């Protein structure tokens, strides 16, 4: 048995062999991951949220993670409509010392606490319209089998050994810490107490016999992986941070706890005196969902994109890829990292009483409204702030007035009495500004609008690929403003359908505006699915015409037939989005903006 103190290990053997093995796995799976051809990889996509710890009720940070993954998944479905091409998992992490302690404090058995809080997450995600294909709980039998099989693979490859760990452990973060990551802060009594340098949570000195994973052998393979794929971790500052961590010593990792201390978990196969470390247990959930260890998982794993909060970056970007390489698999295809939400400039905290209940927000601002706010305002690179007035102002401005007002204007019986997609007149709006003749009324700004909306789907797709959903929504909102400006500029309510001079141009203005709305509705489906459905239904766009493959903007402008021209609009669907601020002052300030 080896002795380990604060992860400084003695008696390491086989270092060069293990490093070569990890390097082979990395190179092999980078060139042809798990033997899957590129066309299969491009069609399929597997998105995951973290599995959420059940020691407390869900908050808006949990919902934000789920919404980011949901939007990425829904956008991929617009690209590849086949339901079999996309998987999306979320769930709850239900083992560990923190759960054991929280259950005891609540006077519950751990399983009772897990059932109660996991149900809260499931209910929240149903109400928030999260379109996951699997909700996994780590207490399920399928997961226990996957974890124990994964453990067996690591052991068979010589990557686990027993050692005596002596050092710091943070129960709140469920992680071991070297001395350099521990500081002292005044406790409730005023005495200095040891805490985690990163999280500020209390730590305690631990001395026990554990199984150890040879993490130190994977430092160079991890560096090669990240340097060889600059987009492996996005946004870039987090990619850079992980590479900086890897410049430091990477000590071996304790991957079990004494069962007498931690009984609420998965036992080490063949050694009931040890419980598998909660993070190893939790991370394997991503494999469990796709059928590991059955062969079917191999066609999905190379397409994996993890969406995580920055507080768990080290576990997902160092420990998890190293464990995967050790088990003969590739690191995740992508790790998308987001920052946190504050409330009125302060970190959410039970002690401050400022934890925001996401279900209350869904009720107050509507499901689509709160989805839109979090994804429109959330910037992955840095922490974002929540306060109620900000939500109301954004939603009223961009959804109720700009988008909803535009739809109402273009479908109102007074302006569009036939209730159809009017005809587009090519002489009124020729494809090139220089061709505008005596009957032409299009202006330079109108051509700028057509150009902006024509390039919008590609622009939005690029932002999704770069994990910048907020920029995708900024781009859509900008085009909505341009379209409102177009309608305001040409004032169709001042034109007369009975006039042979006005009618062609009136129809053209409405046709262009409706085409713009069709693009906006299609592109908003990943973020505001119900609102987008209402908008597209009002335009008479069928379910089979809502994918990105069918999104051909303003074909008549480019000399092609338009399948919507002359088609009746759909039935009246009511207000697209309800105005949240009912004050007259806000309505007047918005109206004056036009």
TrEMBL record:
GO terms for molecular function: ATP binding; methionine-tRNA ligase activity. It is found in: Mitochondrion matrix. Coiled coil: none annotated. Keywords: Aminoacyl-tRNA synthetase, ATP-binding, Ligase, Mitochondrion, Nucleotide-binding, Protein biosynthesis, Transit peptide. GO terms for biological process: methionyl-tRNA aminoacylation. Residues 46-410 form the Methionyl/Leucyl tRNA synthetase domain. Pfam families: Anticodon_3, tRNA-synt_1g. It catalyses: tRNA(Met) + L-methionine + ATP = L-methionyl-tRNA(Met) + AMP + diphosphate. GO terms for cellular component: mitochondrial matrix. Its EC number is 6.1.1.10. Residues 439-542 form the Methionyl-tRNA synthetase anticodon-binding domain. Belongs to the class-I aminoacyl-tRNA synthetase family. This is Methionine--tRNA ligase, mitochondrial. The gene is MARS2.
């Amino acid at each position: 048995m080896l002795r380990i103190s604060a992860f400084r290990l003695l008696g390491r053997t086989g270092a060069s062999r293990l490093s070569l093995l990890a390097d082979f796995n990395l190179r092999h799976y980078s060139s042809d991951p798990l033997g899957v051809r590129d066309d299969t990889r491009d069609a399929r996509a597997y998105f995951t949220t973290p599995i959420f710890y059940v020691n407390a009720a869900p908050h808006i940070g949990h919902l934000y993670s789920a919404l980011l993954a949901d939007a990425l998944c829904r956008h991929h479905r617009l690209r590849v409509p086949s339901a079999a091409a996309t998987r999306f998992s979320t769930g709850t992490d239900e083992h560990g010392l923190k759960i054991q302690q929280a259950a005891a404090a609540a006077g519950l058995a751990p399983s009772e606490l897990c059932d109660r809080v996991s149900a809260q997450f499931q209910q929240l995600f149903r109400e928030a319209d999260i379109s996951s294909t699997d909700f996994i709980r780590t207490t399920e039998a399928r997961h226990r089998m996957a974890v124990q099989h994964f453990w067996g693979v690591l052991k068979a490859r010589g990557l686990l050994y027993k050692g005596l760990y002596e050092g710091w452990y943070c129960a709140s973060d469920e992680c071991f810490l070297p001395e350099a990551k521990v500081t002292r802060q005044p406790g409730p009594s005023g005495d200095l107490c040891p805490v985690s340098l990163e999280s500020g949570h209390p730590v305690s000195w631990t001395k026990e016999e554990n199984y150890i994973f040879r993490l130190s052998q994977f430092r160079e393979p991890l560096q090669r992986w990240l340097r060889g794929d600059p987009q492996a971790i996005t946004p870039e500052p987090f990619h850079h941070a992980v590479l900086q961590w890897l410049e430091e010593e990477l000590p071996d990792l304790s991957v079990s706890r004494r069962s007498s201390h931690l009984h609420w978990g998965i036992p080490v196969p063949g050694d009931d005196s040890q419980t598998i470390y909660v993070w190893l247990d939790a991370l394997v959930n991503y494999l469990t969902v796709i059928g590991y260890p059955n062969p079917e998982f191999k066609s999905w794993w190379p397409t994996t994109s993890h969406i995580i909060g920055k507080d768990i970056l080290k576990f997902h970007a160092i420990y998890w890829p190293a464990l995967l390489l050790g088990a003969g698999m590739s690191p995740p295809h992508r790790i998308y990292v987001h920052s946190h939400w504050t409330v009125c400039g302060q970190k959410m905290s039970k002690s401050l009483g400022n934890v925001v209940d996401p279900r209350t927000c869904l009720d107050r601002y509507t499901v689509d409204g709160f989805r839109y706010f979090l994804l429109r305002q959330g910037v992955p690179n840095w922490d974002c702030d929540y306060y109620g007035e900000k939500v109301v102002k954004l939603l009223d401005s961009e959804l109720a007035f700009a988008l909803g007002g535009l739809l109402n204007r273009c479908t109102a019986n007074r302006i569009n009495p036939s209730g159809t997609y009017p005809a587009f007149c090519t002489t009124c709006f020729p494809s090139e500004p220089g061709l505008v003749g005596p009957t032409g009324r299009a202006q330079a700004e109108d051509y700028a609008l057509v150009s902006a909306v024509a390039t919008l789907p590609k622009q939005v797709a690029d932002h999704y690929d770069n994990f910048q959903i907020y920029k995708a929504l900024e781009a859509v909102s900008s085009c909505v403003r341009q379209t409102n400006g177009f309608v305001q500029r040409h004032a169709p309510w001042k034109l007369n359908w009975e006039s042979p001079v006005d009618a062609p141009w009136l129809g053209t203005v409405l046709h262009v505006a409706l085409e713009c709305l069709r693009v906006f509705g299609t592109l908003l489906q990943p973020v505001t699915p119900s609102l987008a459905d209402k908008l597209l239904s009002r335009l008479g766009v069928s379910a089979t015409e809502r994918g990105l493959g069918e999104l051909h903007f303003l074909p008549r402008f480019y000399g092609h037939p338009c399948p919507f021209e002359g088609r009746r609009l759909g039935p009246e669907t009511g207000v697209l989005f309800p105005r949240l601020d009912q004050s007259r002052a806000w309505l007047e300030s918005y109206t004056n903006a036009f």
